[in-house]
C-alpha cells in the first residue's frame, strides 16, 4: 500500500520557518527549494530592450560584505566565538553561574525577586549538568553572560531574545530570570 518515504517539499502557501537571528546559516537551512519545481523563463536577449534602459533606471551595486549594521555574532568583541572558546568546557557552567550570581547580588532587585531568579537559574544549572543543552545554546548563554559582565545590555537583550525564540524548549524555564535581570538594569 505505501510506496515508502517521500521527502516533503513545502508548497507555495506553507508558512516559512524563520530564525529570530538574521544569519545566513539560519536562512539557508530553512529555505525551501522552490526552484526545483518551477522552470525558469528565459527572456530573449534583444537590443531594443537593452537600449530602453537608462543608466538612471539601473539600480546601483551595493557591497553586501560591508554592512554597517551587521548582526553577525562573530564581529562583536563581547560575544566573539574566540572569547567563548577561550573558556574550557569543564569551567563553562561554573563561569556562567558565578557571573550571573554576581550580577544578581549587584542588582538593586528586591530580595524576593533575587530568590526567584536564583531558583530559575538553578534550573539552568540542572539542565546544563544533564547535557540538555546543545553546543549553540551553551555558546549563546556564555556570550549573554559576557555581555552582561561588560555592561552591554543591548547586546545581552538581543541574545536573550534570540535564545528564547530560537531555542524555546531548552530555555523557557530559566531565560525569564535573565530577562528580569536585564530589564531591571535597563530601567
UniProtKB/TrEMBL annotation:
Residues 82-183 form the SRA1/Sec31 domain. InterPro entries: SRA1/Sec31, Steroid_recept_RNA_1. One of its GO terms (cellular component) is nucleus. One of its GO terms (biological process) is regulation of transcription by RNA polymerase II. Residues 20-29 have a biased composition (Polar residues). GO terms for molecular function: transcription coactivator activity. Residues 1-29, 51-75 are annotated as: Disordered. Keywords: Receptor. This is Steroid receptor RNA activator 1. It comes from Sipha flava (yellow sugarcane aphid).
Amino acid at each position: 500500500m505505501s510506496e515508502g518515504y517521500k521527502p516533503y517539499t513545502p508548497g507555495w502557501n506553507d508558512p516559512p520557518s524563520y530564525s529570530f537571528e538574521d544569519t545566513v546559516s539560519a536562512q539557508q537551512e530553512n529555505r525551501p527549494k522552490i526552484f526545483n519545481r518551477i522552470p525558469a523563463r528565459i527572456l530573449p536577449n534583444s537590443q531594443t530592450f537593452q537600449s530602453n534602459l537608462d543608466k538612471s533606471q539601473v539600480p546601483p551595486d551595493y557591497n553586501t560584505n560591508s554592512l554597517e549594521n551587521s548582526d553577525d555574532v562573530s564581529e562583536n568583541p563581547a560575544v566573539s566565538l574566540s572569547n567563548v572558546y577561550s573558556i574550557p568546557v569543564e569551567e563553562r557552567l561554573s563561569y556562567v553561574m558565578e557571573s550571573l550570581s554576581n550580577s544578581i547580588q549587584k542588582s538593586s532587585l528586591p530580595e524576593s525577586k533575587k530568590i526567584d531568579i536564583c531558583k530559575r537559574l538553578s534550573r539552568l544549572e540542572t539542565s546544563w549538568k544533564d547535557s540538555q543543552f546543545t553546543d549553540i545554546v551553551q555558546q549563546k548563554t556564555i556570550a549573554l553572560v559576557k555581555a552582561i559582565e561588560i555592561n552591554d545590555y543591548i547586546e545581552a537583550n538581543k541574545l536573550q531574545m534570540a535564545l528564547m525564540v530560537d531555542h524555546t524548549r531548552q530555555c523557557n524555564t530559566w531565560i525569564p530570570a535573565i530577562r528580569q535581570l536585564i530589564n531591571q538594569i535597563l530601567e
